[in-house]
Here is the input.
Amino acid sequence: MIGCRVFSRRRFLLTSTCLAAGLLAGATPAWARSGPRTHTVQKGETLSQLAQRYGVSIAALQTRNKITNDTIKIGQRLVIPGIAALDSVIDATNSLRITRGRWKHVVVHHSGIEDGNAKAYNSAHQRRGMNNGLAYHFVIGNGRDSEEGGIELGPRWLKQLDGGHVRNREYNVHGIGVCLVGNFEERRPSAKQLESLTALIDWLRDDAPLGAKPKFTVHRWVDKNHTVCPGKFFPSTRLRLRYA
Ligand SMILES: [Zn+2]
Here is the structure.
């Protein structure tokens, strides 16, 4: 059973302790800083030096910044890609025909279980009568059945179909569904999962060819009093502040 699913008959106990107060203490982790990392090119710097400094590939830097050769200019602002996992998402998305302004929301979920990946959830959702399969557009792995922090694209993204991840029509038609594998009523999402999630949302808001800047939300804020998804240990409020 995938806990957050819309047609799940499982009843969730709604508690008043959904926010993990402990997350607010201590230094700001990388995923919580606002906006994507950027670098302004200084005299004498090369693409390969910058790739090495930031621990990313030259190809990733080129893709993220739409650079087709090795030339960078003094004063040029480069976006530093968060993770290599985003490269395949960018490549696949660039070949899609996306209706400008369609995607207005990003709705984050947890799967509610530690097992599974996009393929497994796709099969589960098909078995439950969802002809378009996987209800979400993206799935971010936890290292068990897919790479930790790896971003899998679902058929609904590749075919630009409505999601099936919430009860609310507006958010299924205009919301990009992103599911992190795990049960965040029991544990926090890993740093790698959050880095991938924020890199994905940064890109969707700032650089993806959407013709819109989708707003961040989570399942339980859409389907109020229906679900605890994405769980009390997911930093929903902190991410809402980041994307405010
Ligand atoms: Zn959900």
Observations:
- The radius of gyration is 18 Å.
- Residues 4, 109, 219, 227, 229 surround zinc ion (CB under 6 Å).
